[in-house]
Amino acid sequence: MIRSQLRVDHIPDRCPGELDSDRIRKLGLLLRVAVAPEQEHFLRQALKRGSRRLGSRGEKRMITGRILMHAEFDSLAREYLPSIAETAQIEDVAA
């Protein structure tokens, strides 16, 4: 078994500045290249540990889900993105 040497939870933490939509998309694309689909188990473990910017609580949860969505880890992203009922309660922020 090959374990990923890359600490995927460190990638967003080392990104300078705020995680705006463009950076979230780019981090997802980087994650897609860095983590093979068959290594999803290791990615799941890293996300459970959480990091400064990734996790399952509050704003971290949405950011994590969006990065996973862009990385095409769809089933894992669904665990972090809000349900349809929850999205109806999210306030739309004017750009």
Provide structural commentary:
With 95 residues, this protein is mainly alpha-helical. It has helices at 10-13, 21-34, 40-49, 58-70, 74-80, 84-87. The termini are far apart. 17% of the residues are buried.
Radius of gyration, CA atoms, in whole angstroms? 13 Å
What is the SS-derived class? mainly alpha
Mean pLDDT: 83
Q: Report the sheet-strand fraction.
A: under 5%
Number of strands: 0
**If helices are DSSP runs of H or I spanning 4 or more residues, what is the number of helices?**
6
Write down the overall geometry: globular
Helix content: 40-55%
Please give a quick description of this structure.
The protein is mostly helical. It has 6 helices and no strands.
Topology:
Blueprint: H1 10-13, H2 21-34, H3 40-49, H4 58-70, H5 74-80, H6 84-87
Annotation keywords:
95 residues, mainly alpha, 0% strand, globular
